[in-house]
From TrEMBL:
UniProt cross-references to Pfam families, sorted A to Z: adh_short
Keyword Transcription regulation tagged: no
Protein's organism: Flavobacterium macacae
UniProt entry keywords in alphabetical sequence: Oxidoreductase
Name the UniProt record assigns to this protein: SDR family NAD(P)-dependent oxidoreductase
SUPFAM superfamilies attached to this UniProt entry: NAD(P)-binding Rossmann-fold domains
Gene Ontology molecular function, alphabetical: oxidoreductase activity, acting on the CH-OH group of donors, NAD or NADP as acceptor
Presence of keyword Oxidoreductase: yes
């Protein structure tokens, strides 16, 4: 039974992935800051599979390392890392951007992503096996107005996905990026700091992706035979053609 560590498992894509993988015989390590949600999800999934939770903020490098090092023997061999934790904070033109928003996105989406990777990759190298799924975004592939810093952090994820694949190639470790378009999760509520109406408007007038759609694709990607590595995948709702072109019927 393979062990999968999912960051950002308390909500959205990460949570849906945990639920999907629990149905398919994976052992799960679920990570996030909201401990109550981790406990709830663990209780929901434990009748299907073995679940361990790790409660840490990806921005705190010591906490990340300590959490990963604290894994009990039954969970310490990580076969699949799903680097999913991340968010957008704000949607402002560059000239009026908020430095705290910029710090949050760079600290979580890039530095936190790296802290988790740094704690886990050496173990995969030692075991000469592993599979890393990096969740980027269509914002990793193109820039949209007011998306400046969020897009930059996701472009960094795209670059790191390629870099990891090159550096880890000699160890037989698979690395692939999955880049969703608009998925209806808590993402926009976080971006707009709890403004639920503004967040709901993002998904109005068309059928966006559901977190379960991405979870299904992640399950597909990590269950391919070993000689297949899905290196990069961009996934949009049918109504979306690019970050700025969405066929809304209002
Ligand atoms: P959600 O807001 O629903 O989930 C974000 C997850 O990230 C939560 O579980 C949250 O957990 C975790 N997280 C955020 N900050 C931290 C932190 N500092 N430390 C630890 N965990 C953290 O959004 P999505 O599910 O949509 O987003 C998941 C990923 O998908 C992100 O990387 C996002 O950029 C990407 N994405 C999303 C798209 C969308 O349209 N929704 C499209 C393309 C990509 P907690 O708060 O409990 O710590
Ligand atoms: C999330 C999708 O279009 O809001 O990465 O940037 S978008």
């Amino acid at each position: 039974m393979k062990t999968v560590l999912i960051t950002g498992a308390t909500s959205g894509i990460g949570r849906a992935t945990a639920i999907e993988l629990a149905k398919h015989n994976f052992k799960l390590i679920l990570c996030g800051r909201r401990e109550d949600r981790l406990a709830e999800l663990q209780a929901e999934l434990e009748h299907r599979t073995k679940v361990h939770t790790l409660n840490f903020d990806v921005r705190k490098k010591k906490a990340v390392k300590e959490a990963i090092d604290s894994l009990p023997p039954d969970f310490s061999k990580i076969d699949v890392l799903i680097n999913n934790a991340g968010n957008a904070h704000g949607l402002d033109p560059i000239q009026t951007g908020d430095l705290d928003d910029w710090d949050a996105m760079i600290d979580i989406n890039v530095k936190g992503f790296l802290y988790v990777s740094h704690a886990i990759i050496p173990k995969m190298v030692e075991q000469r096996s592993g599979h890393i799924i990096n969740i980027g975004s269509t914002a990793a592939k193109e820039v949209y107005p007011n998306g400046n810093v969020y897009c930059a952090t996701k472009h960094a994820v795209d670059a790191l996905n390629q870099g990891m694949r090159m550096d880890l190639n000699q160890f037989g470790i698979r690395v692939g990026g999955i880049h969703p378009g608009m998925v209806e999760t808590e993402f926009s509520e976080v971006r707009f700091k709890g403004d639920a109406e503004r967040a709901a408007n993002v998904y109005k007038g068309f059928q966006p992706l559901k977190p379960e759609d991405i979870a299904d694709i992640i399950r597909f990607v990590i269950t391919r035979p070993y000689h297949i590595n899905i290196a990069d995948l961009v996934v949009m709702s049918t109504a979306q053609a690019s970050s700025t072109i969405v066929n809304r019927i209002i």
